[in-house]
């Protein structure tokens, strides 16, 4: 009997050990598919694109030639690349300064005006539903210097001096394109803020109103602080999104004229697909990766610090 | 007992053999697919290609042609990716020149010379010059399939009649036409230069008129004495900017998109009187605006004072587009047979009915416009392929970029020439 009892006790202990082991191993087992997925579709391409930045290659056959840091040196001296990067930064700044506040105001207003707001929500959401290519073609026509409505309206109002060559003049091309990008993405941030506001308890607004607080006070003192976290997320998303922006700009101007509206992603596309310089184009992509990572890290750090201060 | 394992073994072997044979058998009995990509994105021209493929399929039971058609810019990208991934279509269309050479240099295109040598009668139908852009190291890599396309100046005859203008033959006459049109509030030229290649045509024609085809050939081939800083190219830049300063182009030219009709719209609305464009533009105008097509005619680019180039020279391609076979194609012989169906007399006749002239000897047509194009080509001293298609891709991009800058007056002709020469030297070093 005693041996049987000790055996079962030992068994139990062994079993518990197994259980503990299994529990420890479980996370790794569950993570394996994700890790494999990340390794194959993220890590491997990342490493191999950094590897490609050290070769000269047209992307065809076994014609790659190792050139060491040549591509990186060329990148450092490439004015067009830095100009593109600057355009990305401008786009990010404009989205934070113009796009986010407009989205915020829209979200607050829509959240307040419960009647009929559903229709407005849908209306404001439309730009996000349209494909960038369709939007690009649409705005190419709107900006058309000879037939487009913008210049026609300005001409009709007698403001001849205001009618410009919106997409063909290097001075206006970037601004014209950025305006459309901002407009297109406002709905996205509006929805983000609306979601943030949805978690704001109604009773608090009602209580504040009973205490005689005005709409503006409620907005500044209650809702805005409540949206802090959402706002930080929005800033981060807008920054990273702007740094890798591509589609609308490509359709409307292809980065032109004279590289005026070139961004890093369109410049990379031009190098890889128009110039057949896969090596250098990949260097641009790798530089983009580094720049975006640094900016995202800084933005993240800043928002963390902001969080502890408030 | 000894049989047992060996029986399983044989069974295994047998099933493996069956498994291996099944696809083979299926292939033998059913279909062999030949894939084909081109940029005949409108239904008429794609239909002509498909008809030829149907005839091929009928004559070759067991073979199926899978054709895909793409829009211009998307096609260039798609082809590049497919070749880069080593999964190109069996047969594909291109313009020859620099980009095709990239594929040839990486051993991804089939040399058609042996096939053509075996079919001399078929080959001799083509105008010899048409093989120029697809010939590398004396080997032919493509067949001219679609059209004879040269850059000419289309003009609105009604406007010219009203203002008592005649097609200019010299630079001074051209400047006069520009002045008269401007005085009457009609933009002289419609130009959609977002795409950069339409503007490039002016530069190429100017360089050809000023220095003849030699200057470019020497510079591109990096021959002794050849340079993109040659005075010929600097003068071409100066003349181009002279046009810009004379207000020769309708407002917004550097931002208008040719693919969505940015330039033709100006012609249709009588807001511009002329357009320098490939002769394919006539078919486009006839499809888009048949009424307007009635009052369109064309003239060739005028001569330039003291120009060494023969004013009868043309810029364009005899064979817009070429069709080639990729090395990855499993049925190369049949693919060549398919190419012959795509470029035989039946296909040529169908294209002629669609107002496109394949570069075949002695081809005749009733259409006065096409006859005029054929006449121009027949008298031409030389045919210069578009620079952006002739040059290696990276250099072609620099060419298009600098020309767009010349149009924008943001660069001097000397700076543009220096930039081209620097890029050409860098390219040659690689």
From TrEMBL, chain A:
Belongs to the binding-protein-dependent transport system permease family. InterPro entries: ABC_transporter_permease, MetI-like, MetI-like_sf. It comes from Martelella lutilitoris. The keyword Cell membrane applies. It holds the Pfam family BPD_transp_1. One of its GO terms (biological process) is transmembrane transport. It is found in: Cell membrane. This is Sugar ABC transporter permease. Keywords: Cell membrane, Membrane, Transmembrane, Transmembrane helix, Transport. Gene3D superfamilies: MetI-like (1.10.3720.10). Coiled coil: none annotated.
UniProtKB/TrEMBL annotation, chain B:
Belongs to the bacterial solute-binding protein 1 family. Residues 1-28 form the signal peptide. Keywords: Periplasm, Signal. InterPro entries: Bact_solute-bd_prot1, SBP. The keyword Acyltransferase does not apply. It comes from Martelella lutilitoris. This is Extracellular solute-binding protein. It is found in: Periplasm. GO terms for cellular component: periplasmic space. Its main location: periplasm.
